[in-house]
Amino acid sequence: MYNSFEDMPVWQKSMDMAQKVFSLTDALPRKEDYGLTSQVRRAALSVSGNLAEGFGRHHTKDKLNFYYASRGSLTETKSHILYGQAVGYFKPTESGNVIRLADEIWKELNALIHSLRRTTQP
């Protein structure tokens, strides 16, 4: 068991992803500051934020709700990155690391959710 959310590998990976998204979006046009740049950065940061908040909850159902929200933010992040590729903002070589990391986080987050759901089922 972990003593802090900071010890969770999935949280660490989600923070790494948020940092990579920040760097990736740094070169976006100024016209996207209140559009794609803001959206994808908030979504990426929300993954780790919801993991941390879920960790701090006492009841398993509360934890699960935040882990589900984290998973939703993860898919939102990936969708925004794929959109950025489609419109030519990101080269696949630049954004591929973020997408691969999102896929890793997806698997780990689903394993965490599955593990917790087993503890709440009779």
Question: Can you put this structure into words, describing what you see?
Answer:
By secondary structure, this protein is mostly helical. The protein has a single domain (5-120), classed as de novo design (two linked rop proteins). Helix content is 76%, strand content 0%. The chain is built from 4 helices and no strands. The protein has helices spanning 9-25, 36-55, 60-86, 92-120. Helix 2 (36-55) runs antiparallel to helix 3 and helix 3 (60-86) packs antiparallel against helix 4. The longest helix has 29 residues, at 92-120. It starts with 8 loop residues before the first helix and ends with a helix. The mean pLDDT is 94.
Feature tags:
122 residues; mainly alpha; single chain; de novo design (two linked rop proteins)
Count of DSSP helices?
4
> What is the makeup of the main sheet?
none
**Architecture per CATH nomenclature, i.e. the level-2 architecture:** Up-down Bundle
Helix content percent band = over 70%
Rounded to the nearest angstrom, the radius of gyration is: 15 Å
| The named CATH superfamily | 23S rRNA-intervening sequence
